[in-house]
Amino acid sequence: MTDDAAVLGDLVLTHDMIAEGVHFLTNDPPEDVAWKLVAVNLSDLAAKGATPLGVLMGYALTGDRAWDAGFVAGLEAVLKQFDVPLLGGDTVSLPAGAPRVFGLTAIGRAPASGAPSRSGAQAGDALFVTGTIGDAGLGLAMAQGTLDGDASLLAAYRRPVPRLVEGQALAGQVHAMMDVSDGLLLDASRMAEASGLAVSIDLDAVPLSPAFRQAKGESRADQIKAATAGDDYQLLFAAAPDAPLPALATPIGRFAAGSGISLFDADGPAPLPERLGYLHA
Amino acid sequence: MTDDAAVLGDLVLTHDMIAEGVHFLTNDPPEDVAWKLVAVNLSDLAAKGATPLGVLMGYALTGDRAWDAGFVAGLEAVLKQFDVPLLGGDTVSLPAGAPRVFGLTAIGRAPASGAPSRSGAQAGDALFVTGTIGDAGLGLAMAQGTLDGDASLLAAYRRPVPRLVEGQALAGQVHAMMDVSDGLLLDASRMAEASGLAVSIDLDAVPLSPAFRQAKGESRADQIKAATAGDDYQLLFAAAPDAPLPALATPIGRFAAGSGISLFDADGPAPLPERLGYLHA
Question: Does the keyword section mention Kinase (chains A, B) (predicted)?
């Protein structure tokens, strides 16, 4: 899935496609698949500070009526939760056994201050992130049956909450903003690269939830695991370190002249992990 | 594929999904599949008199690089032809052998006079259609190898031309408008139903191309075949019989109080065919 949106005048548009076996598991509840498809698109709007106007949806049916009914129920639930109308869409029928594929377009109104991009960070800016990081990664492990953890972790993976209110409040205050979809380190490095800057990240500052600490711990390895897992859908933004912030967020790093991403913690510099995030095929 | 678009303020939005084996044939050239996906969405905008602002695209790749490259080439060609920017999109990789699935969202600006709907026909209005009808249906038979006809028929099936200019010119003059995607009779009956009226259609007036006449003929059966084939992507509209029309179109019928669709020709009333059009699964 892309984590960026197009800006067209005062409109923000995003289109994501998800496929069974790639972006969701065959045994994921269909209600949650629908929820997540909508939520990740709304997260793209949130990163632009946009107010959702509606969504259009394309879905491929494969003849499993119970699954399809669950998907529709989940779709109704998520649209109601975030007060977003379904403007239109299309269905196709695929042969039984074909992977399920869904596409969603979300359209929103940009904030009056203009939609922030990922490329506007300034040297000296702090890097902030909303919420906690790494929960969805552990939720995925729970869905795959390889981890026993708190239900909140599974919910973070299956029913992410797009940070619409925070994005709208922050849009006029930040120099750059994007959502964290492919891993904190990977997305932070993308913001630095797009802004023509270097970014250094304090691993000790990466916000971990109590459920994450309980399931994994808070060692450097655990911090790295959280910061390289995908599917967080928090907002990552650059702002002056002393800017008054209209939404809760944690400062986790700093931008400076140069390029690339570097890590440190209380023990000093930390080596970069082999991969900075999670990329779907 | 749906043939309708959502109107949101001064915006018109449409999303169509197409799947291999359902909306296109496995042996259709990938350049043409891309062309048609864009063209049918632009046709939905044309029916609203809208000016395209851009498209967002979702495509599933299946590992066949030559096919994918052809698809991208066709996409570039059709966007250039109709001067429409690609605003964004997403790709997913599916296992080899999975049916190819594509989704497209098109967004346009509604005309100053407002976007016509399909429900505004008035008793006494004439029903008009642009261009010729039935060519794409014969083109499909050619693609399937069951008909030997003129290349223009195959082109009508594989590379339909959305009637954007005509739609923009007509929008302020018509009482109702839609595009003909599932068959002239089926779409005309939908307009009548949406408008709470009856419609009668003169089969002799259904415009057939020279290539159609040469490949099939112009008997009542041939007229019915043309009027029930899909994929025409012409504009169907209701207007006063004596309205000055800013685009070329043929009057083919009349709206009256009542409900349902009826057919006639020079020999008198004609029975309705068993099916009025072509519906994809």
Answer: yes
What are the chain A neighbours of B14 within 8 Å (beta carbons)? 56, 88
Which pLDDT score is estimated for A92? 87
The CA distance from B50 to the nearest CA of chain A, in Å, is 16
Parallel/antiparallel/unpaired status of strands A234-239 and A176-180: antiparallel
What part of A 230-259 touches B (C-beta under 8 Å)?
A: none
A88–B58 CB contact, under 8 Å: no
CA dihedral (A120, A124, A130, A135) positive or negative: positive
Which residues contact residue A144 at a Cβ distance below 8 angstroms, ignoring those fewer than 6 apart?
A25
Looking at 3.90.550.10, 2.60.120.560, 3.30.1330.10, 3.40.50.300, the CATH number of the domain B6-109 comes to 3.30.1330.10
Q: Which two tokens stand for residue B268?
A: 């008198």
Q: What is the 3-state secondary structure (H, E, C) of chain A?
A: CCCCCEEECCEEEEEEEEEECCCECCCCCHHHHHHHHHHHHHHHHHCCCCEEEEEEEEEEECCCHHHHHHHHHHHHHHHHHCCCCEEEEEEEECCCCCCCEEEEEEEEECCCCCCCCCCCCCCCCEEEECCCCCHHHHHHHHHCCCCCCCHHHHHHHHCCCCCHHHHHHHCCCCCEEEEECCCHHHHHHHHHHHHCCEEEEEHHHCCCCHHHHHHCCCCHHHHHHHHHCCCCCEEEEEECCCCCCCCCCEEEEEEECCCEEEEEECCEEECCCCCCCCCCC
B96, B62 in Cβ contact below 8 A? yes
Place of tokens 């209380």: A266
Q: Do B93 and A11 touch (CB under 8 A)?
A: no
- CB-CB: which of B15, B22, B87 is closest to A6? B87
Provide the terminal-to-terminal Cα distance of chain B, rounded to the nearest Å.
9
Cα(B140)–Cα(B157) distance, integer angstroms: 6
Q: How far is CA B207 from the centre of its chain?
A: 15
Higher pLDDT, A195 or B22: A195
Residue A149 touches partner B, C-beta closer than 8 Å: no
Whether A15 and B53 lie within 8 Å, measured CB to CB: no
Chain B 84-123, CB below 8 Å of chain A: which residues? 87-95, 98-99, 101, 103, 105, 107
| CA distance readout (Å), A205 to A11, A251, B146, B264, B276 | 35, 7, 68, 78, 66
Q: Where are the domains of chain A?
A: 6-109, 126-270
Comparing CB atoms, the residue among A5, A98, A101 nearest residue B92 is A101
Distance CA B14, CA B167 (A): 16
**Overall CATH class of domain B126-270:** alpha beta
A59 → chain B, closest CA residue:
B17
CA A16, CA A37: separation in Å to the nearest integer?
8
- Please list the ranges in chain A whose pLDDT falls under 70: 1-3, 279-281
pLDDT(B48) > 80 = yes
